Amino acid sequence: MAEDKPLTVVTCTAPVNIAVVKYWGKRDEELILPINSSLSVTLHQDQLKTTTTATISRDFTEDRLWLNGKEDDIGHPRLQSCLREIRRLARKRRSGGENGGDSSSSDPLALSLAYKVHIASENNFPTAAGLASSAAGYACLVYTLAKLYGLEGDLSEVARQGSGSACRSMFGGFVQWIMGESSDGKDSVAQQVVPETHWPELRILILVVSAEKKHVSSTAGMQTSVKTSPLLKHRAKAVVPERMAQMIQHIQCRDFEAFGELTMKDSNQFHATCLDTFPPIFYLNDISKQVVALVHRFNTHYGKTKVAYTFDAGPNAVLFMLDDTVDEFVEVVKRSFPPGNNGGQFLKGLPVDAARTSEELLSAVVRDPTPGAICYLLHTKPGPGPMLVEDASCHLLGTDGLPRSSCS
Ligand code: 2P0
Predict the structure, then answer these.
(1) DSSP code per residue over 208-237
(2) Distance between CA atoms of 167 and 72, rounded to whole angstroms?
(3) pLDDT tens by residue, 197-248
(4) Largest CA distance in the chain
(5) CA dist 148 to 104, 110, 140, 206, Å?
(6) Model pTM score
(7) What is residue 114's predicted lDDT score, i.e. its pLDDT?
(8) Which of 19, 50, 110, 330 could pair with 40 in a Cys bridge, judged by C-beta atoms 3.0 to 4.6 Å apart?
């Protein structure tokens, strides 16, 4: 270990996001440029986050990566794209490029670009839960490397090259990914619409469906959809532009009914394009469909949209509602999908109080209870974007640059 050159270690966290106007389809596979803009809500990191530590040392002989404690292949093309792009931007800055330059020999990182990097990353939720870990993962990687190399400004364009949806995890609150027009992707960036503080009553309930089978990956699925689905073309050209404008307006006005209805319609259209793909792709299963029906019965009972669902490339339901609806709706879910006998905790995340639900509501809404169909519920809310972790005890890599036991 070189004593005159202490290791530089940086640890950051980044959030998961859930789209309410869906991204599906690329016009450029390598740069990850989408065929339509999209809009998402960033989920709170208290419940779902990726933590990444990156460190450089002149003693390292190769770039290395550990995912959830196990060494992984750092040669993945998308990971390499992010690493290369960050190093290119750092070199540009050091050599007096676009940000004014800082080539001072007193810069402790002046030589660091030649050094190898060690990276460790872990999620505070099981990858098996199917909760979009690639978005948080690439956002966290890019944000952490940027801090390590002293880069500032918007790096959503770099995160996008790791995974499309990752660019939206570079911001908190409500975020749009503007598709852009240019072939080099410079204008295909994420932007915050409003911060998470804008809508403090909004809550999110994730219903993790049991026994999830392996499904078609998003990357592969959207390739087939772009090639074969006329509905997807129509959606990108004629539907999404108007929906983006409407969704932004509903969020700005905190109009839950309009926000919820459009969210459900956009999820449904995304899954319709999956069915329009040839051969067709099915991400929703019978339990997902039961959740859809339950939400509609609940809303019909009240005569307004109080709960809204959205589904990504898997069967888990993500539900939006206002805080005054959570307790009652959770009770309805418990009655509809009585917790299985797996000994696990059924309710995770933000607290939920016991609710007094009327018999009238239960008999109108609960049909054919399916025990054990929902593995657990995760209660969360919109949250902030990536963050630097100051507490050195949270570093995932030790002073030797190797994984250490994680921070609680
Ligand atoms: C979204 N999804 O907007 C949509 C809705 C899934 C359904 O973004 O190939 O993992 O890495 O760019 O970002 C999932 O796709 O795909 C996704 P790549 P990604 O959130």
Answers:
(1) EESSPPP---HHHHHHHHHHH-HHHHHIII
(2) 23
(3) 999 999 999 999 976 666 789 999 999 999 999 999 999 999 999 999 999 9
(4) 74
(5) 17, 12, 12, 33
(6) 0.94
(7) 86
(8) 19
Q: What is the pLDDT of residue 99?
A: 47
- What spacing in Å lies between the alpha carbon of 165 and ligand 1's midpoint? 5
Nearest CA to ligand 1 atom 20: 19
In tens, the pLDDT along 155-213 reads: 999 999 999 999 999 999 999 999 999 999 999 999 999 999 999 999 999 999 976 66
Structure tokens given for 23: 């991204």
Cα separation of 11 and 387, whole Å? 9
- Residue 193 CA to ligand 1 center (angstroms) comes to 19
Give the tens place of pLDDT for each residue, 364-386.
999 999 999 999 999 999 999 99
Distance CA 60, CA 291 (A): 51
Task: Tell me the pairing of strands 8-15 and 49-57.
Answer: antiparallel
Q: How confident is the model at residue 315 (pLDDT cuts 50, 70, 90)?
A: very high
* Mutational test site, ligand 1, from 163, 179, 240, 310, max ligand atoms within 8 Å of CB: 163
Residue written as token pair 């888990």: 316
Confidence band for 104, pLDDT divided at 50, 70 and 90: very low
3-state secondary structure of 44: coil
Instruction: Ligand 1, residue 222: give the atom nearest the CA.
Output: 9
Could you identify the residue written with the tokens 């929902």? Answer: 374
Name beta bridge partners: 403.
Answer: 397
Using CB distances shorter than 6 Å, the residues near ligand 1 are: 19, 22-24, 32, 38, 134, 163-165, 218-219, 270, 312-313
Choose the CATH number for 1-195+389-408 among 3.30.1490.20, 2.40.170.20, 2.40.10.10, 3.30.230.10. 3.30.230.10
Which 8-state DSSP code applies to residue 174?
E
Which atom of ligand 1 is least distant from the CA of 163? 11
DSSP bridge partners of 19: 40
139's CB contacts (< 8 A; 6+ apart) are 14, 15, 50, 159, 162, 166, 167, 169, 170, 386
- Which pLDDT score, from 0 to 100, does residue 101 have? 46
